[in-house]
TrEMBL record:
Pfam annotation, one family: GAF_2
Keyword NAD on entry: no
Species of provenance: Saccharopolyspora aridisoli
Protein name: ANTAR domain-containing protein
Keywords: Kinase, Transcription, Transcription regulation, Transferase
Domain ANTAR: 169-230
Length: 250
C-alpha cells in the first residue's frame, strides 16, 4: 500500500503535469510548486526564481510572502546557491551556511541572521537552457540528500516542461515571451497584495494567503483575481469579509 508521502508525491506530479487546461494560471502553478516542494523535500521555505530574459533573475513565488524571506530569495539572484546552480545548471547544496561566508558573503550572512542554516538550489531547465531555479532554505543544519536532490530536480523539470509547453501549445509564444508574461503576472499579484494589506490592515503574507485561498475556493485563476482586486473590479471588502468569517469560525 502506498504511503501518504507517496500518494502526495503522485498527486503533485499529476498537478504539475496538468497544464493544458483553459483556466491554467501560471502564478497559482508556481505557488503550488513552491508549497509542495517544501512539503515533499522537508525544508522550511522554497522560492521559485526565473529569468527575466535581460540577463537578470527574479523571485516569482515562495512558500511565504514575508518581506524578509522574499529579500533572501531576491539576494540569491545576485549571489548564493541559486546563482551557482544557474551558472552550472546543476544542483548546489550547503548544510552549513555559517561556513559559506567566503563563498557567498552577503547571502550567507543574511540567511544565518534570519535563522537559516542550510540551503540548496535546483535548476529549472529544458534541454540545455536553464530558465530558473528552485531554491530551498532550511532552519535545520541538514543538507538535501542525494535522493531528495533527485526528487527536487524531477519536480523542477516537470514544472519547467509544463509551463513552457502550455504556453507554446496555446499561444505559440517564444520562451522569452512566456517568461515576460510570467513576470507581469507577478507584478499584478504584488499590486493586489498591497491593496488587500492596506484595506484590511493585513501583513503581506496574510494578504497573499487570502488572495490564493479565495481564488481556489471560487475556482478562479490567481492572476485574474489579483487583476480584478488591483483595478477594483472586485472590491477588497469581498475578500476581507471571507477572511473575517473564517476568523470568527475558528
Amino acid at each position: 500500500m502506498a504511503t501518504e508521502r507517496e500518494q502526495r508525491l503522485a498527486q503533485t506530479f499529476v498537478a504539475l503535469s496538468d497544464t493544458l487546461v483553459d483556466d491554467f494560471d501560471v502564478m497559482d502553478f508556481l505557488s503550488l510548486l513552491a508549497e509542495r516542494s517544501a512539503e515533499l523535500l522537508d525544508v522550511t521555505a522554497v522560492g521559485v526564481i526565473l529569468s527575466d530574459q535581460r540577463g537578470g533573475w527574479r523571485p516569482m513565488a515562495a512558500t511565504n510572502e514575508d518581506a524578509r524571506l522574499l529579500e533572501l530569495f531576491a539576494m540569491q539572484t545576485r549571489e548564493g546557491p541559486c546563482q551557482d546552480c544557474i551558472r552550472d545548471s546543476a544542483v548546489v547544496t550547503s548544510s552549513d551556511l555559517a561556513s559559506e561566508r567566503s563563498r557567498w558573503p552577503e547571502f550567507a550572512e543574511a540567511a544565518v541572521a534570519s535563522g537559516f542554516r542550510a540551503a540548496a538550489a535546483v535548476p529549472m531547465r529544458l534541454r540545455r537552457e536553464t530558465i530558473g531555479a528552485l531554491t530551498l532554505l532550511n532552519r535545520e543544519a541538514v543538507g538535501v540528500s542525494g535522493a531528495d536532490a533527485q526528487l527536487g530536480q524531477a519536480l523542477a523539470d516537470v514544472a519547467t516542461v509544463g509551463i513552457l509547453h502550455q504556453r507554446a501549445a496555446l499561444r505559440k509564444e517564444t520562451v522569452s515571451e512566456q517568461l515576460q508574461a510570467t513576470l507581469h503576472h507577478r507584478v499584478v499579484i504584488e499590486q493586489a497584495k498591497g491593496v488587500l494589506a492596506e484595506s484590511g490592515d493585513l501583513s503581506m503574507q496574510h494578504a497573499f494567503e487570502l488572495l490564493r485561498d479565495y481564488a481556489r475556493a471560487n475556482g478562479q485563476g490567481l492572476t485574474d483575481l489579483a487583476r480584478s482586486v488591483a483595478d477594483r473590479t472586485i472590491q477588497p471588502s469581498n475578500l476581507l469579509a471571507t477572511h473575517h468569517e473564517q476568523r470568527l469560525s475558528r
